[in-house]
């Protein structure tokens, strides 16, 4: 069966890069757990940094993978009717990676169980945590029903529950990235975050990066079968390309309105993004990455250009999280607070340290392994059925 995954097709270059990420990440983990938070670049005023951004990025990817994959399955686009296992396990792998990233960031990581054993139902974090579990349960059951089907080319199954559970999983998948935006949007004390547009931006970003993740994985494992998967690639390319343009348009609308109003409390944060210490994250990583991806995905299309363009999106779209997460914390709500106390941990600036980058490399290596492991499970389930 051509739809079975042949991991041997993966270039040795990718394996070498993964080993580098893993080894560097293990060094970072040893440093992190032996020194605690001392080597991190965040402090009391800016408590969230790169690892939290990775958490939101991978959760968004998980939702985006599920949205694009389930929609492709329901609409019978390309080969998606035969790839629900792949979509599901890639989504689960990214979600687990996001949760692992935020677990690493916790000061006392082994207390994570409190959110389930003694939850505060008024907390957005509690809501998010239970939503993740619900998503995996619902989508997992849908995959089980898919496994039990005798005819994989249709939505029909003996139980009659596959389609309803796929729709339910799709609804929750839309909530995964948008709820992350709502997490920031409800914080009244931060004017830059307190915006109804944030859930929409997080949702668009999640769909773009999730579609790019599927495109990246498919372009690697089906690189020699481009013609047979042309419709699948075209669908994902369109999702990613149009999503990038919509995100940039919404971002421009948000920035222009805020900067036009001289009394806006969000103007200082946006000025930091555009003209302050984080200008390179916006103009080079985010904007430059978006333009490069659009060119690669839509000009002289080949399996290699699609693969590279998708990789650029998956990597650079973390900037959409950092450009929201960091500037929102670097603005003091009290005048004079910056000058009132002096300590290395009492600053309104943040730059990721070497240890944070090393741990981030382990998180990425973990994601790659989780996706590989999930694809292998999907391969075995497909072959047995």
What would your notes on this structure say?
41% of the residues are buried. The protein has 385 residues and is an all-alpha fold. Helix 2 crosses helix 12. The longest helix is centred in the middle third of the chain and has 31 residues, at 230-260. It has a single domain (7-384), classed as Formate dehydrogenase/DMSO reductase domain (Formate dehydrogenase/DMSO reductase fold, Up-down Bundle), CATH 1.20.1630. The chain contains 14 helices and no strands. Residues 1-7 have low confidence and may be disordered. The protein is globular and about 70 Å long.
What is shown here, in short?
With 385 residues, this protein is mostly helical. It has a single domain, classed as Formate dehydrogenase/DMSO reductase domain (Formate dehydrogenase/DMSO reductase fold, Up-down Bundle), CATH 1.20.1630.
What is the overall number of helices?
A: 14
Main β sheet profile = none
Structural class: mainly alpha
Name of the top-level CATH class = Mainly Alpha
Estimate percent helicity. 55-70%
N→C terminal distance: 12 Å
Mind telling me the C-alpha Rg? 21 Å
Give helix and strand order, one letter per element, not per position: HHHHHHHHHHHHHH
User: What overall form do the CA principal axes indicate?
Assistant: globular
Low-confidence parts lasting 5 or more residues at pLDDT below 50?
Answer: 1-7
Strand segment count = 0
Give the DSSP E fraction (strand runs of 2 or more residues): under 5%
CATH architecture: Up-down Bundle
Instruction: Give me the CATH superfamily.
Output: Formate dehydrogenase/DMSO reductase domain
């Amino acid at each position: 069966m051509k739809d079975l995954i042949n991991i041997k097709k993966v270039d040795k270059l990718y394996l070498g890069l993964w080993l580098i990420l893993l080894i560097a990440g293990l060094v970072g983990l040893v440093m992190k757990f032996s020194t605690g938070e001392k080597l991190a670049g965040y402090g009391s005023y800016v408590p969230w940094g790169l690892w939290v951004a990775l958490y939101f990025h991978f959760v968004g990817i998980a939702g985006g993978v599920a949205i694009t994959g389930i929609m492709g399955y329901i609409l019978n686009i390309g080969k998606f009717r035969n790839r629900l296992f792949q979509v599901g396990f890639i989504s689960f792998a990214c979600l687990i990676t996001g949760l692992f990233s935020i677990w690493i960031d916790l000061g006392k990581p082994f207390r994570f169980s409190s959110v389930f054993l003694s939850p505060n139902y008024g907390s957005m974090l509690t809501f998010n945590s239970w939503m993740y579990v619900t998503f995996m349960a619902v989508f997992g059951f849908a995959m089980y029903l898919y496994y039990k089907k005798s005819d994989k080319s249709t939505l029909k199954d003996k139980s009659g529950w596959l389609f309803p559970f796929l729709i339910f999983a799709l609804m929750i998948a839309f909530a995964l990235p948008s709820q992350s935006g709502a997490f920031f949007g409800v914080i009244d004390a931060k004017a830059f975050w307190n915006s109804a547009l944030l859930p929409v931006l997080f949702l668009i970003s999640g769909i773009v990066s999730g579609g790019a993740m599927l495109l990246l994985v498919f372009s690697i494992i089906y690189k020699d079968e481009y013609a047979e998967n042309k419709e699948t690639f075209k669908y994902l390319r369109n999702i990613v390309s149009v999503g990038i343009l919509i995100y940039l348009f919404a971002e421009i609308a948000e920035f222009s309105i805020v900067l036009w109003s001289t009394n806006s409390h969000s103007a200082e944060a946006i000025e930091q993004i555009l003209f302050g210490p984080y200008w390179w994250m916006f103009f080079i990583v985010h904007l430059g990455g978006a333009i490069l991806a659009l060119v690669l995905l839509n000009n002289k299309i080949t399996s290699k250009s699609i693969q590279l363009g998708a990789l650029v999106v998956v990597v650079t779209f973390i900037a959409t999280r950092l450009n929201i997460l960091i500037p929102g914390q670097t603005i003091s709500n009290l005048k004079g607070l910056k000058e009132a106390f002096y300590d290395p941990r009492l600053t309104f600036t943040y730059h990721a340290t070497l240890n944070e980058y090393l741990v981030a490399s382990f998180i990425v290596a973990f994601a790659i392994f989780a996706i590989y492991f999930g694809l292998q499970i999907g391969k075995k389930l497909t072959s047995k059925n």
